[in-house]
Amino acid sequence: MAEYTPVKLLGDTLGQRHRHLNSLVRAAGESGTTVQDVEAEPEQSAVDRLFKIDLAVSLRDADYILRNLKHDDMLFVSRALKARWLLDRHDIINPKYLENTLFPEMIFPAVSKMKHWLYINLRDPAKCQEFYEYYKQNSFEFAIKFLSHCSNHFILEEVPKILTKLSPHYLKVLCEKCPTVAKIYYDSLATQDDVKNRYLKQEQSYYNSIKCVLKSDADVFLDVTENYFNLDKFSRFSPLATDYIMRYHRSRVISKLGLYVAHVLHIPTLAAKLSVDECQDVVLQLARASYLQYWFQYKAVEPLIKRLHPQKRAAFKKRIFVLKDIGECIQEWPYPTPKSPPQSDTSSHIFDDINYTPFTPTQFQFKRMIKKRKCGRYMACDIITVENNMKTDLQRLFEEFRFIGFDRALHDLGQRLRSTGSADRRRDIFLVLISKTGGRNDAVSALLQLAARHSNEPVHIRAAVVRSLVKRAAVWRLPADVWQNLLNFGRGLGLDGTPSEAACYEGLHAVIIRQLLAGECEPKIINAFLNNFSSLKEYSLKVDERLRIAVGLQNLLVAAAAGMEPARAVDRLNQLLDVIEVYGIQIQTVYPVIEIIKSLALSDENVVRPLIERLYKAKIGRQELLRENLKLRCDEAALLNALRHDLSALETEQIVNIIARGGKKFDRFISKLVIYFTQNEQLPVYFRTTLREMIASEDNEKGNIIKQVRSLVCLSYQDFEKNFSEVDAIEKKNDTLRAALRACAHRARPVVNLAKWGWSRAGAKAVATRAMRCREIEKAEFIHTLATDRRTVRVALALNLRSEGEPVLDTFTSAAKLRPVAALRVALRYFRHYDTKVDVGVWKIIKPLLSNVDLSSKERLRNSLKKIQWIPSAIKPDYCSTLYFVLEKILDGGSEVLLREICILLPEVEVDTIETILTWLFEKIGEDVVPLPYPAMMVRYLMLSTNDEDLERRFTKIGDRFLECLSSLRCDKASVFKKRLHQTINSLKYNAAFLDNKYSLCLSVIEKILTWLQTLLPKEENFPKYVQIHLTMLYFRAVRQSMKQMPEVFADPKRKRTEGVEAVGFVFGRYIAKEVAELVTTYFDSIIELYTGALVDYLGDFADGSSRGKFIESLLKGMLAGAEGTERRMAVYVLKDRSYDVKNEARKELERLLIQDKFTEVFVHAELLN
Hints:
By secondary structure, the chain is an all-alpha fold. The chain is globular, with a radius of gyration of 42 Å. The longest helix is centred in the C-terminal third of the chain and has 25 residues. Among the domains are: 97 residues; 137 residues, no CATH class; 105 residues, no CATH class; 153 residues, no CATH class.
């Protein structure tokens, strides 16, 4: 088979060689040559292998294709994937065979590429379902790509199971295949909170993703729109969507007219699809809708009103907007309006503990500063509001004549025109009249007759009138006599090509448009127009007018550019490109333009550079201007273009210099050159020789050598290993070159044999590149070997963490010994990426490193370690406490964050660890040390006692010492004592302990602290503090009583946060009523008012949210049930002060209960209803 291999490609360009290779493959196939005939032939270049692969693809030789899929060179893998007929081979294309047999023997990039190839090309529903079901558990992002190609029946079965995972993109893809998916998704918003919460984060995106359903199942789409369209956020439909709805679903629009017109449809398109009578009826219905008054105004419905005949339009506007003759108004929406699904309650819960912050040396207060900024912002808003409400004389004149027809306006304003002395006022009158013409020729003619009587107006007034006429009335279409009147009125404004006395470019534009449409342009007009050129895109031209104007402008600009000096010629050609972009047409005169540009490039390259770049982007003259493009824009696309069309353009020193500086930017170009052009051909030899000279240059910098070597490695072809050996044998002054050759060895073809070279010779970077591309069957061996070398242990960790389920302990153990800092950094990424799936053993390996590694000089690592939101919950308590000790030793300022987190996780932290931390806080000394920095943590530590012996031990070790320190602060630092005591009393309410029966001695802790406080503060002078402690005791008893009475409620986390709140609140209210009754008996009746004040403050300390309102409502009901006589008035006071926490319906019910009670009726009228 020597006639086919080795393959020698013929052709001067890349394109020709591509075609020649394809012809060789066809000829071999037609001659009966098989893959086995050529497979054993030696391969002298990559093209020989490409020929064999292409032949195997054409002959459907699956065995040879599979062998190439396992190759180390991605060039051959990509070529083998041209065999799309593999998709028909179920013995190969099935997930079990691929995952168990083929993929483990393919390099990692090849696996990724083949997976991409699979989901792009696989379309058979049964096979797609097989792939989806295989991958959906462990690789959902890959599996979902197959779901849209499954059968509709399977999609409808599967979608309800994956709603929480659907992104807007995949929802759109599934809806395109099966429109019912949109209905399933939106129906789920009412029942599945997880789906709803994700939807609300990207509401507009999810809604946009189902717009594809409009034409496949419009009823589903419109049902969703009528239920979930966000009136405040969503944009209106496009003209095309509006047109489709009006053509095929008009009845849906008519049935809910206010909704669709005011918020949903594109009104100009809607107006075009309705008859004149229907437009009039729609406006009347909208005017009667009082619920649309915030939207209904003339501007909003102007497209509908403009459908009426001009003679009827004025009377109709007057009827609607002036006389308000619209009939009976409708106050409320006659049907439910769409709205977003309600937000889930994400507020804090009363069973959530307050996360207190440790006291620090400096705590600044910014309250006054914020207040000033707020006031300044409000002042600015007031100024803007006043300015927006001020109207100019012109605006007021428009408003006065908005609903008056042209004829009457012409009569009334014509009279004012004669009597008005102000020139600006006369200008405003003309502008209003122009707006009333509506662009009608008869109205414009009447206006110009009026204007002729005022032809002696100042030039700036006439210029304003002409400018407005051109923009509003399309005056270039006027009859000849009316046009002449316009020219007469516009004398001195440059309409004849002479210099203008006032700025009036629009007038000249109207003249040039009229002349271009007529096909005859006066030279004087052309010169004036080109001096102030415009593409005329701002004018409303008809389709045929746009085409004629575009062609006319091109001819003008090409003619003007010929023979001009370079700078001015480039300006004209840039204007020509503007015209092509604006009008979206092909250039009509390519050849003369190209010739002009070539001559300009020879005379002044810098001036013509931006123009050539624009031509290239516009895909104009790329082949004709190939050499010019290479000179001015030498990116990879330009080089590839030259490789396809003209190789001689690449043989310049400029091109080699750019490649030498480019590094990775030209990899694709170099690869194609090396593959399709042999080692000894002129262009590769030129590049290789020049690059070697650059590298050998003595003044060459290190950074440049690395970039140059990258291209040279590819251009060395099969001689790379020989060249490397030669460099490797030279003395040490070539260290940079040797290192660069090793780093770029992966670019060589044929691929370097790492086992033959040896890892030491290849270098760490080459080893890392090879390792990260390794096959699955080689992975374990690579990890084991890499983990034993300090230089490659990080690679071992990265390779180990690339896929889930890999054993990582051995690798981390090795890394911890060889590169402890690297092990710490990788462990953080591991914790963040795998979260709940982490192996806890990794933490046990990493934990000693926190103490052994010197973190004092590694600020970035410390900051990363303090990002505890990345740490899995299984190890977070131990992690935070360990890191806290380390940071405290090096006096890092961020340890307070860890201390706060430890307090949150207190029940999960080891008791010895907590005691060590608290002892540490007592023993810290120094000028900046804060006394008793965290009372809340100490109190909660005491609350977690499990038995009497444990409680006694905790008080002996920590509690007594804490209370002694707090007592001493009262004498030394009164203000500090006040803050610490406040946190101490507040932290007594500890829900984590109250709601866990394991901690049964919470009441004993509170009583001990209460006894201590009584020895320190008189009860009469500090009554609110004592009430607060007593209320916490009652709250604890209420929680435990409710848990005893309703164990099934508190065993269910969801019911505990709903029914549990009501139960605790009711019992708490009864206990409060009982205690108040005892206080009244002991002291006096008005103590109720004192107690109520403390109770209101206590309730305010509960976490804010909807649960607090429910809790207070239940508490008040419990108080009413437990209190007697006038003691019930306390419920009235509490309801008054905390009414904003209670929902309106519940508040009204409570008021009704209170007003029906003879003991509280008077207080209700005095406190609530007055």
